[in-house]
Amino acid sequence: MAIHSRPPVKPERTGSPLTRRRLLQLSGGATAALAAGSWLSMRGSAAHYRKLAGDAKPAVLSVKELAVLFAVVDRLLPAEPGWLTAREARVAERIDRELGFHTRKFQGDVQAALLVVEHGGLARGQFTRFSKLTEEEQDARLQRMAEGQDLERQALSALKIFAYFFYYCDERTWPSIGYAGPLVQTASAPEADSRVAPRPG
């Protein structure tokens, strides 16, 4: 399956994939090494990330992290005729807001996953950060991550789950997968139980 293929799933109305405990387990040592190795490449890049994030205002993530998340979900959910785009569904922003309901530890895991995507190429001698690659190069990078080490696979897998979940939470995506929505549109008052004898007047 291609990295950005859309799974034929129906959207959930309640719940969140972010509530799954231990969904994302990243090595603190590995991410620290990535952070140290990418320090020089991050200098002077504020304008680059601000441009990618556009007018979006981060709730939990930094501008850089939100910008990287935009870049990732754009490739996981690329624009296709007749489909809502990830930007139109505001997938990255919805993930960012959802993180506000979770622990600092969990938030840190997601931030670490974004760091792995953005600067993980350093492990292969590739110094161009993910957000500066062409779309074709980004797809290739994600494919290598999907087939790479545990750290890469875990980071990408978690971000894919979040992206798909919040994409299909948008009702505008449902016609594309043939989902007509909940069978019960509005709640109705419960009917009287015929098994209960009426009280005498």
The computed structural class is mainly alpha
Poorly predicted sequence stretches spanning 5 or more consecutive residues: 10-14
Percentage of residues in strands: under 5%
Radius of gyration over C-alpha positions, nearest whole angstrom: 21 Å
Largest sheet: none
Mean of all residue-level pLDDT scores:
79
**Strand elements, count:** 0
Element pattern in H and E: HHHHHHHH
How far is the N terminus from the C terminus? 68 Å
Mass-distribution shape: elongated
Question: Into which percent range does the helicity of residues fall?
Answer: 40-55%
Total count of helical runs of at least 4 residues? 8
Report a brief summary of the structure.
The protein is mostly helical.
Description:
This protein is mainly alpha-helical. It has a domain at 30-169. Helix content is 46%, strand content 0%. It contains eight helices and no strands. The radius of gyration is 21 Å and the shape is elongated. Mean pLDDT is 79; it is low at 10-14.
